[in-house]
């Protein structure tokens, strides 16, 4: 095995370990049952604008994918001739399995054409007005500003819809892409599983503002079987890029909103409203980040770091009537979020 193949394999193994830690956190925070009733909060709705999705690529039931719509004039039926859209859709559900996903097909190639901006605007408007989503993922970039897209982004921001955008994969060789450079979006950078910025990651646009990164290297997810070459039984692909990191960051925000919709935070809807603002969500991202080479590397389980390994054993908690590991984790996450909420919202009734 050559050195490059070894490096790729190491990145993939590290990414798998990152997901293992994430899923352990999800198990601690999911409410399960309260009394005899299952506690199922209103699902978080996430829209992603990409190359579409190939439903045959998934090895599991896809009832969480609620709608797929093509905004291409030339192609009305749904599918994915590129592959990245399928990979990104699967990735959302890997991070936030209880989220409802809405897929908007805005391109049929990896390279976006200038006329694609009309597709993006139409998809944004549909996500805002028809799907009524909580989060929109924009895993692409244009080289220039688009007034018509910015108009839709402003409407989304006014509706308190979180907007996540990829910063591109060209390092310092190209300018910061749009819509990542819009003040309305949350731009996301790519890093390996340990937080080291990816070699293709561009420098932060504004050194005075905090920049956020998360896992974007060696990430395995579904891939259209028709694009898998001779072996169509291997319907997955390992990918790296700021688009991968952006999807993971957006789905992580979905987990935060999902937790806010569970008791006891659900008793204070103003807390969720604050979390659905760019300022509010970035406060929480900052809380669960580690500084690495000038970036804030988002590590979701830091939100409950102290309770992820509770000071009491499960046996002690059960025998003595103390708190379970899950109760401690949920308490830690709730306390961490409320500590960041502005006081006037926290005390509001």
Automatic annotation (TrEMBL):
Domain of life of the native organism: Eukaryota
Listed GO biological process terms: proteolysis
InterPro entries to which the protein is assigned, alphabetical: Peptidase_S8/S53_dom, Peptidase_S8/S53_dom_sf
Limits of the Peptidase S8/S53 domain: 84-258
GO MF annotations, alphabetized: serine-type endopeptidase activity
Protein name: Subtilisin-like protein
């Amino acid at each position: 095995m050559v050195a490059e193949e070894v490096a790729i394999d190491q990145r993939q193994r590290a990414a798998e370990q990152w997901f293992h830690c994430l899923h352990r956190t999800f198990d601690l925070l999911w409410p399960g049952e309260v009394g005899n009733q299952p506690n199922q909060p209103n699902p978080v709705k996430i829209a992603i604008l990409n190359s579409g999705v190939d439903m045959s690529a998934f090895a599991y039931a896809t009832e969480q994918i609620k709608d797929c719509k093509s905004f291409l004039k030339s192609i009305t039926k749904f599918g994915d001739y590129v592959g990245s859209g399928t990979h990104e859709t699967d990735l959302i559900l890997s991070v936030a399995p209880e989220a409802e996903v809405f897929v908007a097909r805005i391109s049929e190639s990896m390279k976006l054409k200038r006329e694609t901006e009309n597709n993006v605007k139409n998809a944004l408007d549909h996500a805002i007005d028809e799907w009524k989503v909580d989060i929109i993922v924009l895993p692409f970039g244009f080289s220039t500003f688009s007034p018509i897209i910015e108009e839709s982004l402003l409407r989304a921001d006014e509706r308190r819809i979180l907007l996540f955008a990829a910063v591109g994969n060209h390092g310092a060789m190209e300018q910061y892409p749009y819509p990542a450079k819009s003040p309305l979006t949350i731009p996301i950078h790519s890093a390996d599983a340990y937080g080291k910025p990816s070699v293709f990651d561009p420098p932060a646009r504004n050194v005075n503002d905090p920049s956020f990164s998360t896992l974007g290297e060696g990430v395995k997810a579904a891939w259209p079987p028709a694009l898998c070459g001779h072996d169509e039984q291997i319907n997955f692909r390992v990918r790296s890029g700021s688009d991968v990191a952006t999807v993971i960051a957006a789905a992580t925000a979905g987990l935060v909103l999902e937790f806010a919709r569970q008791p006891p935070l659900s008793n204070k809807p103003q807390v969720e409203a604050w979390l659905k603002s760019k300022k509010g969500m970035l406060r929480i991202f900052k809380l669960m980040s580690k500084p690495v080479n000038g970036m804030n590397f988002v590590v979701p389980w830091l939100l409950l770091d102290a309770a992820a390994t509770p000071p009491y054993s499960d046996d002690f908690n059960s025998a003595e009537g103390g708190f379970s590991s899950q109760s401690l984790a949920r308490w830690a996450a709730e306390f961490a979020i409320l500590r960041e909420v502005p006081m006037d919202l926290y005390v509001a009734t």
